[in-house]
Write a structure and sequence with these properties.
- The protein is an all-alpha fold and 144 residues long.
- The chain has one domain.
- The protein contains five helices and no strands.
- The N and C termini lie far apart (57 Å).
- 10% of the residues are buried.
Length: 144
């Protein structure tokens, strides 16, 4: 059974990714910013019981830092009756595998919220001229 919070999050992320594709914004850099969110949603969806599950989880989370993965696992509270709580031994197993895989590395937990990335929107000229437009009076834009 999948966690109920992960499904809508993953759906919303896929809708954003689809919109980027439709609008031709694949090269805008927004997809890369969404990737940690997508991986966090996937992390919540995978089975979290055995040693093999821990290995699969570690190989899945390539853009999340080990600290972020562990924080998500420790903070996750499953819905009553839908999933069991993540065991401390599973979290320890993930922590050991991440340490073996990445070493001690960076201790960054949160994303840098001050980072801005440019979004390039393609400009296409309209075949209509402004003097050809008819603006309805109901809009109250007579000054145009």
């Amino acid at each position: 059974c999948l966690p109920p919070t992960a499904l809508p999050a993953r759906y919303n992320i896929s809708q954003l990714e689809q919109w980027l594709w439709v609008e031709g914004l694949q090269q805008s850099g927004a997809r890369e910013v969404l990737e940690p969110l997508a991986q966090a949603a996937q992390l919540l969806q995978v089975k979290k019981v055995t040693e093999e599950d821990a290995g699969a989880l570690c190989s899945l989370c390539t853009v999340l830092s080990p600290q972020q993965v562990l924080k998500i696992l420790r903070a996750y509270t499953p819905a009553v009756g839908l999933e069991e709580r993540i065991s401390p031994s599973f979290i320890s197993s993930v922590e050991k595998q991440l340490r073996d895989q990445y070493g001690e590395g960076s201790s960054q937990l949160l994303v840098d919220t001050s980072h801005l990335f440019p979004v390039y929107l393609p400009f296409t000229t309209s075949p209509l001229h402004l003097d050809e437009l008819c603006i309805p009076d109901t809009l109250g834009l007579a000054f145009l």
